[in-house]
Amino acid sequence: MESQHGKLRQLFEYNFLEYTSYVIKERAIPDINDGLKPVQRRILQTLHNMDDGRFHKVANVVGATMKLHPHGDQSIFAALVNLANKGYLIDRQGNYGNIFTGDSASAPRYIECRLSPLAREIMFNKDLTEYVDSYDGRMREPVTLPCKIPLLLLQGADGIAVGMATKIMPHNFCELLEAQKKILQGEDVRLYPDFPQGGLVDVSQYNNGNGKIRCRARMEELNEKTIVIREIPFTTTTESLIDSVEKAAKSGKIKIVSISDYTAENVEIEIKLARGIYAKDTIKALYAFTDCEVPISPNLTLVQNGVPRTATVEEVLRYNTAKLLDDLRRELEIDKNRLEDRLHARLLEQIFIEERIYKTIEEKTSYKAVIAGVDEALAPFVSELKRPVVTEDIERLLEIRIKRISRYDINKQKKEIKSIRGDIKTIVKHLKDMVLFTTNYISKILTKYGESYPRLTELTEFTEVSVRRVALSNLTVCYDRKDGFLGHQIKVSSGEPEFSIPCSEYDRLLLIYETGMYKVVQVTDKLFVGHDIRWIGKIQKGLVFNMVYKEGQENLCYVKRFTTPKFILDKEYRLFDEHKQSKILLLSLGEEKSARASLVPSPRAKSNVVEIVFDEYLLKGPSAKGKRVSPRSVRRVIDTTGKTPQPKKINLALPGMENTDPGQGEEE
Known about the structure:
Elements: H1 2-28, H2 38-50, E1 56-57, H3 58-65, H4 73-85, E2 90-93, E3 112-115, H5 117-122, E4 131-133, E5 140-142, H6 151-155, E6 157-160, E7 165-168, H7 173-184, E8 200-202, E9 206-207, E10 210-211, E11 213-216, E12 218-223, E13 226-231, H8 238-250, E14 256-261, E15 269-273, H9 279-289, E16 293-296, E17 301-304, E18 307-310, H10 313-354, H11 367-378, H12 391-398, H13 402-406, H14 410-432, H15 434-449, E19 458-460, H16 467-470, E20 475-480, E21 485-487, E22 499-503, E23 508-513, E24 517-522, E25 527-528, E26 533-538, E27 544-551, E28 556-563, E29 573-574, E30 583-589, E31 594-599, E32 609-613, E33 627-628, E34 634-639
Parallel strand pairs: 8-19
Antiparallel strand pairs: 1-3, 2-3, 4-5, 6-7, 8-11, 9-10, 11-16, 12-13, 13-15, 14-15, 17-18, 20-21, 20-22, 21-25, 23-24, 23-26, 24-29, 27-28, 27-30, 28-33, 31-32, 31-34
Helix pairs in contact: 2-3, 3-4, 7-15, 10-14, 10-15
Keywords: DNA-binding, Isomerase, Topoisomerase
Organism: Desulfocapsa sulfexigens (strain DSM 10523 / SB164P1)
EC number: 5.99.1.3
């Protein structure tokens, strides 16, 4: 039984690994050589096979591609539309949908396509292409296409395989080719994404094809009450962006009157704002709460030599540049060999006709004798040829018709031979300096097609939009001391609430208790916090707290100042040691605050009042003990901020006399 389970486990593991490998290499992850997934490569090869310069019905192209691709017409159609909408390799005719609005394409029987001039020039060369049998063995398909531009980085890619995924950002056509020229010159390069939707992109955290980027919509203030979105972030559509704006409006994060989509060839989304709300502030809120700003985490995973790996933009570009140089060298060598074969044939033909060698075969009685006779007659001229004469050369000569011999033009033949020799000389020159030849080739492509592909996305650096700062204060948090509850759904039964704080759902509330305990809580609908809260307020960085408190064990008072404390949500902290007699006597906020402490009267004291100017005390940590007010006990403390200081009263009681007036010697 255990052996059967073991065999079953091995079977599942083997089949799962096979499936994983297939999905990675044959479905989801593009190849570094031509930047294409298998379905895209098969579509382009099919279009090349069908190419006659005219448009073809997409339905016919999909049907023809099914001879190479075993996964059905819908996957082929979706891949073709996606490839065509990238705008580089396929010319379109008809409704292919809209990348801005997310509208889908018309049915394949209604739309047409063909290879673009760029695709014809840079994607195909039978001499450089390795072919294998298709899935049913009836046709031959390319392993990869000999692409002459870095298509993987140009178009980008997005795919999910088993245990891995890829998200490659598209880049600008001209920038890629200029970078290749720099690589050929030994210079360093740095490239950043460029999206067909335009917009703005912050690449401060971009790590050469990986890392993180942030994309923003391009917005403008038509007036202080109207915002127009002209470009949208990558990965979004006008529909998804409008949905996110409406969702933010329903949840109270922004206030708008209406949002209208006028997008056609260009994006135009108009947002009308509510009364009392202005465009300058709302733009920040749109970035914070809607898809007007989206984070993207690129992941440059590709297939190289049949194995998936994660690479960088620079690695891919250097690989593609080295491959381009090698492909161009191979093309030149193939052309050189063909020209040399052609020159050899022309020289043989010239000798055969001008030296009248064809007359030597008139008396030969057998084919073998004819071959030998021609070979013998050509022997004196072998030194003029590029290579030795073989039987195939002689057979080709014997196929020349008498009509052609009679009309033979010596001058024309010499001119053609000279032209062929000139072409060979040019190729040899190029082969000696392949870097220059490759650079010139790239420049030629740039000159021919570069103007059609300007940069659309603006590179910039965003300042972080604080959600708490731009959120609308659409909630009012109240505190009911009688019941001990806090929240934005609390309704005080009688009179005005003691604490009523306008805030947003992103704010944090600092609670300071009479006993010196404090904690920070989230804004909530209803929360029990107790009956002895001294102060409640929103967390504000750098806010100064001035406090006078009684230390119960010593029965003395202390003064201290501190700023907004650091915290962990819902964790309890203390401003001073816990004791049943310890409590806060005065708490005020900000600079230039003052107070007056009234001391317990003493017959020997000159004054029973201490004036406290908080700015004279150093800022310390919230848990620091503070500075003692007086060695005597304090009866009470009052806030005197903004009041004119009163002259201190001197206690004139003689030693031993009791103070009959408890308030004598105090200033209030």
